[in-house]
Amino acid sequence: MLRTATQKETTTDKDARIIRRYTDQPTQMPADLRNHIEAAWGDRPLQLYALADLNERMVLDRTWVAVGPDHVAVATEANGKPEAIRSFERTRVKSVRETPGLSCTVMTILGPADQPALAVLRYTHRQRRSMENVKFVLQEGIAGNTVQPKDPDEAYAKSVAQSVRDAQASVSGRKATVLWRLMGYLKPYRARLVLAFVAATAMTLLMLAPPRLTQYFIDSVVGSFKDGVLTRAQAFHSAIFVVMAIAALAIVRELSLWVRLRTLSILGENVARDLRRDLYAHVQKLSLSFFSKKQTGSIITRVSSDTDRLWEFIAFGFVETSQSLLMLTGLGIVLILSNWSLGLLLIAPLPALLWAMVRHARKQRSRWLRCWRKWSGITEVLSDTIPGMRVVKAFNQERHEKARFDDRNDNATASFNEVHTIWTKFWPLLMLALHGMTLAVWIVAVPRVLPRAGLAPSLTAGQFVAFLFYMGMFFQPVEMIGMMTRMISRVTSAAHRVFEVLDTNPEVEDTATPVRLEPVEGRVTFENVTFGYDGVRQVLKGVSFDVEPGEMIGLVGPSGAGKTTVTNLIVRFYDAVGGRILIDGVDLRRLDRGHLRRQVGMVLQDPHLFCGTIGDNIRYGCPEADVEQVIEAARAANAHDFVCALPNGYDTTVGERGHTLSGGERQRVSIARAILNNPRILILDEATSSVDTETERKIQGALERVIEGRTVFAIAHRLSTLRRATRLLVIEDGRLTEHGTHAELIEQDGTYAKLFRMQHELHEMFAL
Amino acid sequence: MTDTKPRKRRNAQLDLATLKLERRADGQLWLKHDGKGDPWFDAAIQKAKADDGGADAASGGADAAPGGADAAPDGANSDKSGGEKKTDVAEDGVAVRIAPCFPWSRAGRYISVRTTKDKEVALISNLDELADETRRLIEEALAEIGFVLEITRVESITTEIEVRNWKVQTRQGPFTFQTKLDEWPIPLHDGRSNRNGLGDASASPGTLVLRDVAGNLFLIPDPKTLDQQSRKLLWPFVG
User: Fold this and answer.
1) SS3 sequence, A210-278?
2) Residues of A in contact with B25 (CB under 8 A)
3) Nearest C-alpha of chain A: how many angstroms from B210?
4) Among candidates B227, B234, B238, which has minimal Cα distance to B152?
């Protein structure tokens, strides 16, 4: 809502930028080469391509492989100019073999058996995704399915940039852009920001005044008194004026400091709050795909500590830097104006000092890097052994672990000591240089303060003292600026990570006029649905089925076949790529998402209970439910009895710091939560697979009660849990291969029958 | 699930000198039947064929059966390769791949010969026991899968947002890659304890291995053998 950067770059631009910056390969296939290939194919369009960056001598090189509707081309290029293009028809491709190695994967495109390979391609892991896309399209072609990738350039750039994109929160490559965008968040607080700046500037400028007053006192008051120009009373009068002015200055200065600190701290806190609010609101809006790509920890850091770093920058860093610069300029001007030769004497070595500091910082950086590496060695041992303490003790390896830790501990200490040796030397040396400058000022100034007899001093004692004061003020801003460079790079990283989240668009969005089904009947229809998480490879390859309201459907098949994907599509965590999904005959995409999800209950394998009471957890999806409804749902879920056995009943706190429920108990609470809404569609994804047989029986009892009258999709590996299913859908490799009742499928003697027999035998085996 | 015993016997009977590999016309390594009606080999072929027939059910069953944990790797593997993996077997032999068990710490020893469905048919502890041609083919295959980029010169190492950017010269040509900020080169040979490094590989002492964000491995030779600039840039990462 407070976003200012309007010129957002497209994903493809971003990928192209990553490829340019971080790799040695082109952002897309050279146009010339592409034209040549398409010409060789009789102007058939190129659909997908990838780069093989190693040649047969294992030297980095460029060999492109391109796939068209009927052809495959393998082409070498030099500086974008085609060298050799070899094409063959896709009908000749019989299989594709991929042999992964440590850094080089070999892909062999094979013709009929016992004939030389059609093409052998070698590539580093960076090309792996795009080469796997090529393999996928070819293999689907062999199986008789046509896959038409959308845009070959986009698919290529996305795959190549992926590894960097995953590692880096890339919003915009330039520090300045990110900082500028951060400034956008200051806009609503413009007035207060100006106030803080005025206060800070006043403070800085006021700091320049006391030395001037001292100079006035020494020269005009003390000097005149000594010369007898002023009487003692007159001198005292002036002195009181000076003291009062200094006091007034001090008060005004500290007042401005107070205004500045207070305003900016509060302002920074507000900006951080705004960022956190926007960030969290945005995170809630994002599709599930975002959370599957990012680690939970990294999202949490972004909302908590990254925004905190931004506060630090806005509250202190931003102003400190500008004030340091102002201070330096002000001092420079004052010094030159009051005495140009002495002023130059002080200012001239300044660049040398800054250079020394920068050099020192740079040297220290690589030393700190080394320390950091050694330090991570220590924490590695800790995070390795502390959670595994049982194993350490069981194998009697305490001494080995202690030795390992001591070793790294000593190693790290040595590195830290090295850093200490350097900086402890540097700062006294720098100070010595400063003292040298002071000395130089003394040497130049003394003859001027004490001129040869008969000559007027070209430098008064007061000017000299003022100079000494100013000199002392010189070095703090220099140091500040040195520190700021580090802070700025830390802040930009934090801002980057924050903005990355803000820039991610939710993939699933409601239409402008969403339809509400009142009430939902529960008919679910898949019409030739295809879906893939990454654009090219498909998880579902044309799945069609029609489920009547009130049916219980068992989804069966090997892991990774696409069962959970089917359920994810029903609740619209993702949108289907091809085909349609209909609920009661209405396209899912036209439905109001929130309304739909209220009609769907989900029970997952590992139910997550939130911090709060059991009652709150049951009420999670429907806070307005009354106590009777909660108890009713708990009864239906077989949870009421164990809840009543707890001393605090439904008011028992669960979650991270609360009462620990067993897996089966949590599952039953989650079932109660799922059915409280009285959903028309119920999804059970491996609801009973992580508990023991006894508990499973209890959960099973609960489930049998709650599936009554609802459309149910149940995923289960233990086929016995699906015995109530009206129909079973067998999904293998993204396709619906078998469907029918248990009896029908046994009759067909296909995959299901095989699975069933195997589990049956296993059961008998254990029963013996 | 219960075939650990017969497998042991099979390996004991296999005379490594008679193990014969060939490269088929399409480039596939082929474990060749020597025609003498070796009972071990016949058994292996029969086993491979049986695996093949029950392939789909086995991989499905592995996931479905709660106790079928030992069959699980098959399921996982067929999944990765798009579910098309089948044992490539004929009367005169079986398609195999080579997998080094200790690619770093015991390079060139303990080589597992596996079918394309990832069942072990032989474990070669020492290549010296093999016939010359077979040995050559295995060494060739090992060189291919063990290929890593070897850094010869470091041009620059810059710390950027979330990644460290390396521009290097490798034996294979110039290369730019990125590592995560908390990813450090690992010493191949760690004098203090084998458990910290990758072990006592045949590589010269001081050699380091680095992994980039894409998963490529890079060998960094002992920095002492590199030019001064590379040495200076590598200093924080070594020792």
Assistant:
1) HHHHHHHHHHHHHHHHHCCCCCHHHHHHHHHHHHHHHHHHHHHHHHHHHHHHHHHHHHHHHHHHHHHHH
2) 114-116
3) 11
4) B227
Which of B28, B64, B173 is nearest residue A755 as measured by Cβ atoms?
Answer: B64
DSSP state of B24: -
Question: In the predicted model, what is the mean pLDDT of chain A?
Answer: 85
Alpha-carbon gap, residue A415 to A320, rounded angstroms: 32
CA distance A643 to A637: 11
Our measurement of the distance from residue A109's CA atom to the centroid of its chain's CA atoms, rounded to an integer in Å, reads: 38
Please state the φ and ψ torsions of residue A538, each to the nearest 5 degrees.
Answer: -100, 135
Q: Say what the ipTM of the complex is.
A: 0.78
> Starting from the edge strand earliest in sequence, which strands make up the sheet with A81-89, in order?
A81-89, A71-78, A60-67, A48-54, A119-124, A104-110, A95-99
Q: Is the peptide bond before A519 cis (omega within 30 degrees of 0)?
A: yes
pTM for the predicted model, two decimal places: 0.73
Kindly list the residues from chain B whose CB atom is less than 8 angstroms away from the CB atom of residue A55.
none
Residue A71, beta-bridge partner list: A89
Q: Which helix (H) or strand (E) holds A567?
A: helix A563-570
Residue type present at position A454: G
Q: What is the DSSP secondary structure assignment for residue A515, as one 8-state letter?
A: B
What's the gap in Å between the CA of B17 and the closest CA on chain A?
26
Please list the residues that pair with A56 across neighbouring strands: none
Q: Quick check: B178 and A22 CB within 8 A?
A: yes
Dihedral sign of CA atoms A675, A676, A681, A686 in order:
negative
Across B34-172, the runs of DSSP E, i.e. the strands, are: 89-90, 93-100, 109-115, 120-126, 149-159, 163-170
Tens digits of residue pLDDT in A161-217: 888 877 765 444 556 677 777 788 888 888 988 898 898 888 888 888 888 899 889
What is the distance in angstroms between the Cα of A299 and the nearest Cα belonging to chain B?
Answer: 14
The single-letter DSSP state of residue A302 is I
Nearest residue to B178 (alpha-carbon basis) of A722, A600, A164? A164
CA-based nearest residue in chain B for residue A166: B213
| DSSP bridge pairs for A49 | A66
Q: Cβ(B64)–Cβ(A717) under 8 Å?
A: yes
The Cβ of residue A571 has, within 10 Å, a number of other Cβ atoms equal to 18
CB contact under 8 A, B216 and A762: no
